[in-house]
Specification:
By secondary structure, the protein is mostly helical. The protein has two helices and two strands; from the N terminus they run αββα. It has a domain of about 55 residues. Helices cover about 70% and strands about 10% of the residues. A two-stranded antiparallel sheet has the order 1-2. α1 crosses α2. The longest helix has about 35 residues. The two termini are about 30 Å apart.
């Protein structure tokens, strides 16, 4: 049997994991969408270019920054940081 304190701690851990998963899914969704768009173009794509998913818009730089941050955090967690 777990205490109320342990149950609360477990809930907070689960909430934090779900927030991380949501952030990673969003980063991957934008990265994949931008790459798919870039692959269909016959011109060069720059970091300042705009990419759209539905009505939402991000620049290439924003997409790359989010993907890099997600990768850095995952790398830090896998190294025990």
């Amino acid at each position: 049997m777990i205490s109320n304190q342990q149950a609360g701690d477990l809930r907070r851990c689960c909430d934090a994991l779900e927030a991380d998963n949501k952030r990673l899914r969003e980063s991957l969704r934008w990265t994949a969408g931008a790459l798919q768009t870039a692959c269909t173009l016959t011109i060069s794509v720059a970091e300042g270019d705009n990419f759209f998913l539905g009505a939402d818009m991000k620049t290439g730089r924003e997409i790359l920054d989010a993907a890099n941050a997600a990768l850095a955090q995952e790398q830090g967690e896998s190294n025990g940081s």
